[in-house]
Amino acid sequence: MAKPELVDYIKKQLSNGHDTATIREHLLKHGYTEALADEGLIAAHAPPLSKKAKMKYFPFSGKALAYVVVVLAVLGIGFGLFSFYQGSSDLAGAAHEAPMPEELQPQQNTETAPSSTREEPAPPEEISTSTETTTPETTVSEETTAGCTSNSACTSGSVCYQHTCEIDTDHDGASDVQEQEKGTDIHKQDTDADSYFDADEFSAGTDALDSTSPGYTSCKINTDCTSEQACSSSGICVTCKDSDALNYKKQGTIRGVQYIGTNIVLSTDSCDSSGKLTEYYCSQGYSLSKNVDCETEYGTGYSCSSGKCAKG
Q1: Rounded-to-5 percentages of helix, strand, coil across the chain
Q2: Any alpha helices (H) in 119-266, and if so which ranges?
Q3: Which residues contact 187 (CB under 8 A, 6 or more apart)?
Q4: What is the C-alpha to C-alpha distance for residues 225 and 239, in angstroms, rounded to an integer?
Q5: Tell me, what's the pLDDT at 133?
Q6: For residue 13, what is the enclosing H or E element?
Q7: Whether residue 77 has pLDDT greater than 70
Q8: DSSP class of 118
Q9: CB 195 within 8 A of CB 189
Q10: Is-contact 250 307, C-beta < 8 A?
Q11: What sign for the dihedral angle of Cα 143, 146, 150, 153?
């Protein structure tokens, strides 16, 4: 669960006019992990990056446009001079208006960071240390002992299926092995021609061979779906399902929609390079992840093994 301090911080930046992408990039630059940043954005009800309104027409006449260009040019010059003299940071009103939680600031950067004439504000005393945020989360590497865990670990033309990189002949996101098991055509991206790729229907749990009764709900935004669902980039309401329901002592698999990018993903709990557990879980219909220190969670002798916390 996102800390209230982080949620309040994000809400303040939204009210200052910053968009979700800018706030997220700034949080990552200041030591937050992708998982923590996304969790905070969701809790603050920030709009997903992939769901930006598109302008269907240009609402200005030629004469009005000329005035707008002149005004924008003057404002641009003025803002440039203001920025030069103020020496503003990459996110105006963000880096120094709200303190970063102390436990989320990268410890390895404190010795090499350049000196600053401005003293950083101290974090509030009431911020407590938790097992999730004691140390900044590092980049999670692929678990080589169990094979692939995502498509990014496979070469072009193949996808990760059951921890193995398999050929994807029609490039629809589903491996030939999975399509043969489901009975779909490995040479057609959309076997039942209902405008949804076979892989999307597999992930959504719908019938990729039935175009008349697909069994899913089409959507444009999350409000078109139930509270346990999220609207994917392919326009399908997908229910987030977690097989172990945040049980750190059991390796689970989750299928749901990523908050950033809104792609449908299938993820399995794993151990990262630092020995912590990467636990996937559902939140407001989205698939999220967090790092768990097994020893801190359960006591001495516990560590991450095969995607779960185990003793010995």
Answers
A1: 30, 15, 55
A2: 176-182, 198-204
A3: 169, 170
A4: 9
A5: 39
A6: helix 4-15
A7: no
A8: S
A9: no
A10: no
A11: positive
pLDDT tops 80 at residue 23 = yes
Measured CA to CA, the distance from residue 241 to residue 24 in angstroms comes to: 26
CA end-to-end span of the chain, whole Å? 29
CA distance 190 to 80: 51
- Tokens encoding 142: 């692929």
Structure token pair of residue 240: 């987030």
Q: What are 11's two structure tokens? A: 């809400």
Number of neighbouring beta carbons within 10 Å of residue 78: 10
pTM: 0.38
Find the range with the poorest average confidence among 25-34, 207-216, 221-230, 238-247.
207-216
Top mean pLDDT of 106-115, 189-198, 231-240, 281-290 is at: 281-290
User: CA-CA distance, 160 to 144, in Å (whole number)?
Assistant: 13
pLDDT tens track for 84-127? 454 444 454 444 444 454 444 444 443 433 333 334 333 333 33
